[in-house]
Amino acid sequence: MLAETFRTQTQGARQLSYETILYEVSDAVATVTLNRPDALNAVNRMMTGELAHAYGRAEADPDIWTIVVTGSGRAFCAGADVADVPEDGKVPHQGTYLSSYDQWDVPQEATPPFRTMAKPVVVAVNGLCCGAGLDLVTTGDIVIASERAEFFDPHTSIGLVAGREVVRLARVLPLNVVMRMALMGRQERLSAARAFDLGLITEVVPHDDLESRTREITALLHRNAPLAVRGTRLAIRKGLGLPLYEAELLAETYRERVTRTDDAREGPKAFLEKRSPRWTAT
Predict the structure, then answer these.
(1) 213 and 144 Cβ atoms separated by less than 8 Å
(2) What angle do CA 4, 91, 105 make, to 5 degrees?
(3) What is the pLDDT of residues 190-230, one digit of tens each?
(4) Which domains are delineated in the chain?
(5) Contact assessment for residue 120 and residue 143, using Cβ atoms and an 8 Å cutoff
(6) pTM score, two decimals?
(7) Burial class (CB in 10 A: 0-12, 13-18, 19+), 174
């Protein structure tokens, strides 16, 4: 059960208490930290539920402009917790089997609802990243990594089919690289430097600088109009699944919507007055 308690921290930060994750809000950023370090932040059913709750809370909070996802300890996320898989191998569910949309849809585990949310997600990979952890990398909007990060998919090494994780990877990496990772399992690993060279991540930083660099990136994001950032993100995300012409029309629809906002008037006004804009996300 979620502990719905808040406590005020220094510098105006707030922390919402969960059992498997940390949730902190400061400077318009909600930081979600996978917090099962002894299990390498493997995702169990409780973490899945808590993450879904945290993502929904952040998306609904008007005071939050950006979501950051990272991990505690030496791992970012070791994928699904094998110890949490039922002995009969059946997909875990609540209530009647296949009675809800979620049971029919693609399992998300650690992934934010990136197809339906508007706010940008910054992913800071602090260490080992495999299995379901790769979903956070392939669906994140800006992904940076510690020099200690390492990426692989272990499914075939434990007798399982590599599913959505490698399908998503194949939309980001060259096919021959994905095939090698998927078929060789835990025997094939990408270093942070190699992941950067291939375009899986956008930046590699010294391990001790990961947190500060993540803060710098969110601060830079917040120099831009938040509604314009969200509309731009949606135009790209939604457009990926459409033919080019329809994607262009959708992007123009988002552009037109944002022109009606206060921030769309504030931006040109601030430019003409030679001052920094004061965004309100309205």
Answers:
(1) yes
(2) 75
(3) 999 999 999 999 999 999 999 999 999 999 999 999 999 99
(4) 6-221 (3.90.226.10), 226-272 (1.10.12.10)
(5) no
(6) 0.90
(7) exposed
